[in-house]
Known about the structure:
This protein is α+β, with helices and mostly antiparallel strands. It has two helices and seven strands; from the N terminus they run βαβββαβββ.
Amino acid sequence: MFGRLGLGFAGAGIVVLVSGCCSHDQAEAKLSDGWVVVSGVQGGSFLDQPSAKQGEPLATSVPGQSCLTDQELLSAFGKACDHESENPSSTKQPDSGDLNPGIPTVTNEVRWYCSGQLAVRVVLQRCSKTADGNLDGVQPVEIAVKTLSNH
C-alpha cells in the first residue's frame, strides 16, 4: 500500500528538504535520517528513514506505520509550533439540539511544524494503535507545506 503513494508528501522531511535546497550554506537535505509523514491517494502513513528514488514514492525496508500514539508522534517529530488560528469547522449540530443518530465522527486534529522559512500543517485523525479499539493514536490525513517567503 505504502509503496504506491504516488502523490505522497514527506511532511517533516520536506521541512529539511526544501529548507536545505535553497541555500548553499545549509547542510545537505535528507529524508533518510528520521521519520517522515506521507499522505497520498492510498492513505497516510509514518515512515522511518525512507529512501528517495528519482521520482518514485518513498520506500523503507519495513512497512510504514499508519497509527502512532501521541508520545510516539512527539518523539518522532518534536513539538508543534505556534501558528495562525484555524477557522471553525463547517459541521454543525442539528438545530434541535439533538445529536445525529449513529456513532459520532471523530474530530480531526491539526499539528503545525515549523523550521526556518517553512510551515508544515498536518491533519491527523484518531485511530486505534492496539486491537482493543481505543482511539489511542493518530494517523495522517492531509499535509500542507508553505514557505514563509511565498506571499
